[in-house]
């Protein structure tokens, strides 16, 4: 099919605004998937996506649609995630498209991630088509949505299409708008072959399968391709399109979105954002790739069984291929053995990766407490980056520590204002300014330390606003703060898995909570075990693990009290000697229980 009758577009929106449901209706309307085969959330391939009701990976699909002008068009659709932790996945999909459907929930209006995704699309010079979804809900407020569209996103309300993914209202209007408003594929007249790798996965039988968007030229089985980033050449074994399953085809033409099976066996060789060209006639200029992603959250991942180390290493390599925003490197811990330091875009991203390792690769893992990258300036030495508390230099040698901050846009109902301000203050944040969106909603622009929002900020935001609050953020500047390393010592020995970098004002409270929790979880020992939280040489909190007591006086009956005292003194001496040479064994699930809490 020629380039003029091809349209590439994606669906972008805030989380839970109905992207995947609308995709199902588009597949149904264009008969891409037969009615008897179609399932709810059809493009969500992972069990995790269906269980949580969120999209984690973008899913391409090719549809054929006969428009009102009687012409058949090839529509390449990508359903993208909505959560802020997967914004990199969205930016990759946008780079392979010329247009985007911007979904707005008729009941909830423009949310934080709606704004962020719209600006991503504007930044890529895409044609944005606004769609007000869920118009059949009793709580739908179309006038408010139209006003927010004009005031917040500066898009004319007349361009908006009214639709409902659930009941199928407005589906034909959306398809017609895609055909009329989205421009044909760009850069198709470039003389050499150029294709952009926007995703890839590893198949144990066929090796690395790259998901590509062909911009110019064509690719077919038997061609010798070349990766422009490293010059590696490989023969193409198969090409095809997504219908929505992988369907083999003879040729991928300009504007096509499809896959190629190559001879590449190493997962590290094909990088997302790379340009593929033909080795015999290589292109001179690579396609504009993606910006280099920087992880925001780090944690250590260790196998529960030490002999699963290689299995975990292979699992991480394959996940890295499938998720370019995920980073990892080797590290070791005294308490946990050999493992990996992993970087993620956010806490949900971290949770999803850990769950995928357990489910898809059958490896039981332990994760350490999440942390961020700090800039540490030792005296008379250059600044260093520290993402693991264990690597923090001696406190006496440190001139200052600076922590990363985030610029957050928080959309909340008016009546939650006081509670949210208190939450922001508690997290050492500040509110720069507030904007009134409409009669019921306001937007706060805040600056917060990244390590303060890692664990419970989003949950508490949802709780305080009864589920109506939403947040989007981007990395801000580094700021100097009074940060210290807090160690947890068990029986006098520091356990590096529990070490953390905290603000001095919050260290005592956090140390006390951690000591109490450990005292509950660690099983009773034969002798009293002290659990202490320390900053340098100063103990700031303490608790004890209960000791097991044997009733040594049970065999005494009658007689003088000195007989019992003699036995108790003998037991005390034995416990003192045991404490000197004894070792506390911490069960592996202790780490999991502490990190969950």
What's the short story on this structure?
This protein folds into five domains: 3-181, P-loop containing nucleotide triphosphate hydrolases (Rossmann fold), CATH 3.40.50; 194-278, Elongation Factor Tu (Ef-tu), domain 3 (Beta Barrel), CATH 2.40.30.10; 297-367, Alpha-Beta Plaits, CATH 3.30.70.870; 375-481, Alpha-Beta Plaits (2-Layer Sandwich), CATH 3.30.70.240; 485-596, 2-Layer Sandwich (Alpha-Beta Plaits).
Explain this structure to me?
- With 597 residues, the protein is of the alpha+beta class.
- The chain folds into 5 domains: 179 residues, Rossmann fold (3-Layer(aba) Sandwich), CATH 3.40.50; 85 residues, Translation factors (Elongation Factor Tu (Ef-tu), domain 3, Beta Barrel); 71 residues, Elongation Factor G (Translational Gtpase), domain 3 (Alpha-Beta Plaits); 107 residues, Alpha-Beta Plaits; 112 residues, Elongation factor 4, C-terminal domain (Alpha-Beta Plaits, 2-Layer Sandwich), CATH 3.30.70.2570.
- The chain has 13 helices and 28 strands.
- Strands 2-3-1-4-5-6 form a 6-stranded mixed beta sheet, sandwiched between helices. A 6-stranded antiparallel beta barrel has the order 7-8-12-10-9-13.
- A hairpin with a 3-residue loop joins strand 15 and strand 16.
- The chain is globular, with a radius of gyration of 29 Å.
- The mean pLDDT is 85.
């Amino acid at each position: 099919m020629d380039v003029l009758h091809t349209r590439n577009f994606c669906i972008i929106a805030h989380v839970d605004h109905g992207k995947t449901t609308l995709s199902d209706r588009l597949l149904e309307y264009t008969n891409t998937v037969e009615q008897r085969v179609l399932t709810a959330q059809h493009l969500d391939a992972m069990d995790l996506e269906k269980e949580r009701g969120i999209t984690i990976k973008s899913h391409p699909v090719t549809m054929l649609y006969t428009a009102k002008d009687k012409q058949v068009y090839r529509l390449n659709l990508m359903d993208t995630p909505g959560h802020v932790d997967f914004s990199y996945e969205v930016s990759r999909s946008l780079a392979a498209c010329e247009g985007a459907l911007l979904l707005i929930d008729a009941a909830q209006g423009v949310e934080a991630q709606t704004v962020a995704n719209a600006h991503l699309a504007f930044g890529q010079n895409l044609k944005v088509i606004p769609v007000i979804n869920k118009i059949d809900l009793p709580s739908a407020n179309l006038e408010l949505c139209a006003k927010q569209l004009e005031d917040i996103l500066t898009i004319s309300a007349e361009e908006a299409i009214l639709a409902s993914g659930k009941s199928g209202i407005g589906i034909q209007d959306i398809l017609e708008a895609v055909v009329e408003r989205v421009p044909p594929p760009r850069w198709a007249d470039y003389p050499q072959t150029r294709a952009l790798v926007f995703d890839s996965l590893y198949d144990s039988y066929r090796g690395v399968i790259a998901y590509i968007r062909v911009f110019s030229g064509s690719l077919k089985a038997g061609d010798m391709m070349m990766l422009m980033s490293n010059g590696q050449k490989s023969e193409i074994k198969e090409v095809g399109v997504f219908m929505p399953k992988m369907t083999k085809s003879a040729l991928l033409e300009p504007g096509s979105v499809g896959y190629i099976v190559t001879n590449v066996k190493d997962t590290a060789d094909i990088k997302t954002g790379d340009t593929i060209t033909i080795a015999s006639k290589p292109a001179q200029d690579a396609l504009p790739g993606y910006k280099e992603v920087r992880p925001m959250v780090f944690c250590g991942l260790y196998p529960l069984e030490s002999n699963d180390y290689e299995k975990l290493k292979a699992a991480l390599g394959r996940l890295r291929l499938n998720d370019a925003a995920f980073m990892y490197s080797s590290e070791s811990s005294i308490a946990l053995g050999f493992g990996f330091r992993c970087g993620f875009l956010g806490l949900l991203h971290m949770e999803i990766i850990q769950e995928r390792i357990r489910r898809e690769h059958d490896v039981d893992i332990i994760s350490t407490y999440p942390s961020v990258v700090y800039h540490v300036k030792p005296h008379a030495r250059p600044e260093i980056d520290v993402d693991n508390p264990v690597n923090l230099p001696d406190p006496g040698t440190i001139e200052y520590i600076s922590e990363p901050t985030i610029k957050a846009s928080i959309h909340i109902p008016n009546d939650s204002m006081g509670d949210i301000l208190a939450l922001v203050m508690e997290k050492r944040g500040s509110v720069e300014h507030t904007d009134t969106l409409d009669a019921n909603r306001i937007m706060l622009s805040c600056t917060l330390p990244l390590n303060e929002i890692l664990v419970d900020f989003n949950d508490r935001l949802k709780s305080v606003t009864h589920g109506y609050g939403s947040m989007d953020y981007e990395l801000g500047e580094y700021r100097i703060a009074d940060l210290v390393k807090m160690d947890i010592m068990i029986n006098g020995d520091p356990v590096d898995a529990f070490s953390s970098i905290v603000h001095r004002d919050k260290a005592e409270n956090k140390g006390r909570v951690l000591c109490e929790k450990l005292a509950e979880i660690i099983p009773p020992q034969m002798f009293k075990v002290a659990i202490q939280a320390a900053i340098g040489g100063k103990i700031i909190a303490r608790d004890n693990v209960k000791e097991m007591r044997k009733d040594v006086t049970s065999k005494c009956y009658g007689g003088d009290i000195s007989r019992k005292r003699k036995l108790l003194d003998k037991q005390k001496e034995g416990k003192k000697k045991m404490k000197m040479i004894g070792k506390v064994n911490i069960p592996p699930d202790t780490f999991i229980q502490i990190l969950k809490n």
